[in-house]
Amino acid sequence: MSERFTVDRIEDGIAVLEGANDIHITVSAALLPDNVKESDILIYENGGYTIDEKLTAARKEEILKKHRSIFNKK
């Protein structure tokens, strides 16, 4: 079974991840992929984390569209 998390922030080697139902967990950033960034979507499966590149890109595009509509930018 896999779980999905959003990287909320990374500070002092600790990552704060937000999961379903606004659950927040902290994990060592060393356990995450080297290229992880805030707002990336992570999948926890088989004892490790991977970045869901497609879902992360789709989410960022959705946020960008909302930003453009709010500020009337193309």
Protein structure class: alpha+beta
Radius of gyration: 14 Å
- Strand % is 35-45%
- Helices, by number, come to 1
Low-pLDDT regions: none
Biggest β-sheet, characterized? Answer: 5 strands, antiparallel
Mean of all residue-level pLDDT scores: 94
The general outline is elongated
Order of helices and strands: EEEEEH
Overall strand count: 5
Q: Fraction of residues in helices?
A: 25-40%
**First-residue to last-residue Cα separation:** 40 Å
The strand line-up of the biggest sheet is 3-2-1-4-5
Task: Please provide a written account of the structure.
With 74 residues, the protein is an alpha+beta fold. The chain has one helix at 53-71; strands at 3-11, 14-18, 24-28, 41-45, 48-51. A 5-stranded antiparallel beta sheet has the order 3-2-1-4-5. 9% of the residues are buried.
Characterize this entry briefly.
The chain is an alpha+beta fold and 74 residues long. 26% of the residues lie in helices and 38% in strands. The protein starts with a strand and ends with a helix.
